[in-house]
Write a structure and sequence with these properties.
Helix content: 40-55%
Radius of gyration: 37 Å
Strand order of the largest sheet: 3-6-7-5-4
Number of strands: 7
Length: 238
């Protein structure tokens, strides 16, 4: 047993004795650690190879790539960043109700089938309105200037909201508006109650020149894009 003298004090240090079993356990532990590291390394190599294979397959599948021009990106960004006016709110409807003469004569049973451009009632063009105007509306030629969302409104509330909205749109000289009536998915019988009502109401309004079903990104069959008359007394060109 080793012994040391420190400041006149004798200290004995007991050295542990390693048995054969201890050496065997140490050897096994080192071997397992080595196997674990080798396994992790092989797994990493396999994942890397799989990633390279997937990348190669992807590149081969998409073929030759043409870089997008900076001008296209700039034009696209300008389009996406263009802000539309905020939709009319219920509070705004209440505030305006006292000053706007609400048209109570709009019939709920008016279906302008003879004036619709499609048997599915997806588009409408007022008699005397140039056909090309409706075609322009369908192609997105007109910029949407106002939006009205009728979701959650009862029939009478929606009718009044629509009248106020159209009155304000014409007063502000807005030509193209976006009206969301919904698809009726949340109604009791899942039937679009407002869908036909809104289309009938719009066809009764003199200020409405045409309307068509919105594009998918704007609500699809649950919304309409409406073109209004220009607010001027003299002859005008659409």
């Amino acid at each position: 047993m080793p012994a040391f003298n420190i400041s006149g004090m004798r200290i004995n240090i007991k050295t542990p004795k390693l048995t054969l079993n201890d050496l065997v356990e140490l050897r096994d532990r080192i071997s397992k650690d080595r196997e674990s590291r080798d396994s992790a390394h092989k797994k990493l190599e396999r994942h890397t190879q799989d990633a390279l294979t997937d990348a190669r397959i992807f590149r081969n599948s998409i073929g030759q790539i043409t870089p997008i021009s900076s001008k296209w990106i700039q034009n696209r960004a300008t389009l996406l960043l263009r802000q539309l006016p905020p939709p009319i709110t219920t509070q705004k409807i209440r505030e305006t109700q006292s000053t706007v003469d609400i048209d109570k004569s709009l019939s709920d049973e008016f279906y302008p089938k003879g004036l619709l451009e499609s048997v599915e009632q997806l588009a409408y063009r007022r008699h005397g309105t140039d056909r090309k105007i409706l075609n322009q509306l369908k192609k997105g030629y007109w910029v949407i200037q106002k939006k009205l969302d009728l979701h959650g409104m009862r029939r009478e509330e929606a009718r009044e909201a629509l009248s106020i909205f159209l009155h304000e749109a014409v007063r502000c000289k807005s030509r193209c508006v976006h009206i969301i009536h919904g698809k009726g998915l949340n109604s009791i019988d899942q039937k679009p109650v407002l869908k036909d009502k809104v289309r009938g109401w719009l066809a009764q309004k003199d200020e409405v020149l045409a309307y068509c079903e919105a594009k998918t990104k704007d609500g699809g069959s649950g919304a309409l894009i409406v073109l209004l008359k220009a607010k001027q007394t003299g002859p005008h060109k659409e």
